[in-house]
Amino acid sequence: MARKLAVTEALGTVSKERDQLANELKTEQERARNSSQAAAQLAEAKLAHALQAEPAKKDAEIQALQAKLAATETARQLAVNEAVGVVARERDDLKNDLNLIAVKNQLEEKAIKEQFALQLRDRDGEIARLRDMKARLSTKMVGETLEQHCEIEFNRIRAAAFQRAHFEKDNDARTGSKGDYIFRDSDESGAEIVSIMFEMKNESDETATKKRNEGFLKELDKDRTEKACEYAVLVSLLEPLHEP
Fold first, then answer.
1. Quick one: which of 14, 139, 145, 154 has the fewest CB in 10 Å?
2. How many of the other CB atoms lie within 10 Å of CB of 84?
3. What would the 3-class secondary structure string for 49-107 be?
4. How many other β-carbons are positioned within 10 Å of the β-carbon of residue 143?
5. Is 130 exposed, middle or buried (0-12, 13-18, 19+ CB in 10 A)?
6. In whole angstroms, what is the distance from residue 201 CA to residue 196 CA?
């Protein structure tokens, strides 16, 4: 009995210790489970917060990128507008220059046409006047009129171009013939530079017998030789429709 009591008492003590340890284990397990759940909840809360913060961060980054793109696009558009403006101004300047040139050309063309038309009218009037004058003159008078014209033209430029020259009628007919005018020019020392025998030939359109230039060349050369002239010139209106 004493042994049984001792065993029972020993078992009771061991059972108490076992139950106490079991309770402590259960308590620790409960505490550990609660801690684990709290940690999980905390982690889950952190994850949820992180997940909520990430879209906001992304949205902020997207907005920042969009703002940057908008600023870049604005700057690009401003640069394009400025470049286009410069080109447009240059284009407008070129258009204005072309318009001015076109207007100037039109005015010049109009002025040339008007001047040409005026010259044509003056020429036609002069031709009509000369024809009328020639119709009223004899052959001899027509020839004398041509001589007078040549003398007047020479005297008009004598002072500027031929200050020491002589252009005078050939009145020496001792050899049986004579030219119309003799031109002689000299240098400063008085030495003769050039001498020319001139013969003027013309006739009215109404003259029955028409003469040709070559019919006067032989006699003109003879007069040139007799008057000691270096050259001979035939001033002729005998063949107006032919090349000289």
1. 14
2. 11
3. HHHHHHHHHHHHHHHHHHHHHHHHHHHHHHHHHHHHHHHHHHHHHHHHHHHHHHHHHHH
4. 19
5. middle
6. 16
C-alpha R_g of the chain: 65
- Percent of the chain surpassing pLDDT 70: 88
Compute the distance between CA of residue 236 and CA of residue 234 in angstroms, rounded to an integer.
6
Helix (H) or strand (E) holding 151: helix 139-161
Q: What's the whole-model pTM score? A: 0.39
Residue 216 has pLDDT above 60, yes or no: yes
Q: Which two tokens stand for residue 138?
A: 């004899």
C-alpha span between 142 and 146 (Å, rounded):
7
- Residue 48 neighbours by CB distance under 10 Å: 10
Q: Which residues pair with 92 in a beta bridge?
A: none
C-alpha 116/C-alpha 161 separation (Å) is 30
Q: Would you give the end-to-end CA distance of the chain in angstroms? A: 182
Measured between alpha carbons, how far is 121 from 129 in angstroms, rounded to an integer?
12
pLDDT at 115 over 70: yes
Q: What is the mean pLDDT of residues 184-197?
A: 89
Which has more confidence, 236 or 144? 236
What confidence tens digit (pLDDT) does each residue in 14-62 have?
Answer: 778 888 888 888 888 888 777 777 777 787 777 777 777 777 788 888 8
For residues 82 and 22, give the distance between their C-alpha atoms in angstroms, rounded to a whole number: 88
pLDDT tens, position by position, 5-16: 887 777 778 778
